[in-house]
Amino acid sequence: MRGSSFRHAVTLLAIVAVLSSVPVEAAPYVLHPEDAAYLSLALGMMLVPWDQEVYEGIRGLPVRESVIWKGFSLAGSPQVALGTALGLTGLGSEFGRDLSRVLLVNGAVTLGLKSLTGMARPQTGLGPILTGPTMNNDYGAFPSAHTSSAFAAATVVAHYYPEDAGWAYLAAALVGLSRIFVEAHWPSNVVFGAGLGYLTARFVLDWE
């Protein structure tokens, strides 16, 4: 019982951590978006030693097998996002142009970190180990590209359409959670990716 209670408590903390990493532009009186993003990076790194326990807790939730999570994971693919952005750019959309720039920069930064850290994905069965520089996708867990891309895209949406910021970040958070449920990422990968996505997007959007 004690172990079960601990796992549920850790699970709750993990979910709160993921959702709290959403930059709250829709509610700036709670926490400044940039502060939330840096907090997300810190939480992501702090979660690494706890990844296995938190992951098992989240995966133990009754909603883990829902096809909805697979749908969020597919819809949140960085390739889908970039393809959509490039299509909008081709139509002369300024929003599409900025979204494309943000996603390209975010993708490069995320891929660079993945290659440097070399964290094994959950489906390898090796646990959340860090192996160092590699281009092997099985060791490209940290950070989550889906989450990073989703939060980067949400930040562009919030920049152009502030009234829809809350929905955009909620969708991004669900994409992040989906990556845990489909066994592609550890909780630390998702939480860190959320902050990374926001910060890279703001850097590109603010660049003169």
What are the SSEs and their pairings?
Layout lengths: L1 H19 L12 H15 L3 H9 L7 H9 L2 H13 L3 H24 L27 H16 L4 H17 L5 H20 L2
What would you call the structural class? Answer: mainly alpha
* Percent strand: under 5%
How many individual β-strands? 0
Radius of gyration: 16 Å
CATH architecture: Up-down Bundle
* CATH-defined fold name: Vanadium-containing Chloroperoxidase, domain 1
Number of domains: 1
The CATH class label is Mainly Alpha
Terminal residue distance: 57 Å
Enumerate the spans where pLDDT stays under 50 for 5 or more consecutive residues.
24-29
What is the share of helical residues? 55-70%
**Major sheet summary line:** none
Continuous helix count = 9
The overall pLDDT average reads 87
**3D shape:** globular
Description:
This protein has 208 residues and is mainly alpha-helical. It has a single domain (2-206), classed as Vanadium-containing Chloroperoxidase, domain 1 (Up-down Bundle), CATH 1.20.144. The chain is 68% helix and 0% strand. The protein contains 9 helices and no strands. The protein is globular and about 45 Å long.
Which properties best describe this structure?
Vanadium-containing Chloroperoxidase, domain 1; about 210 residues; about 0% strand; mainly alpha
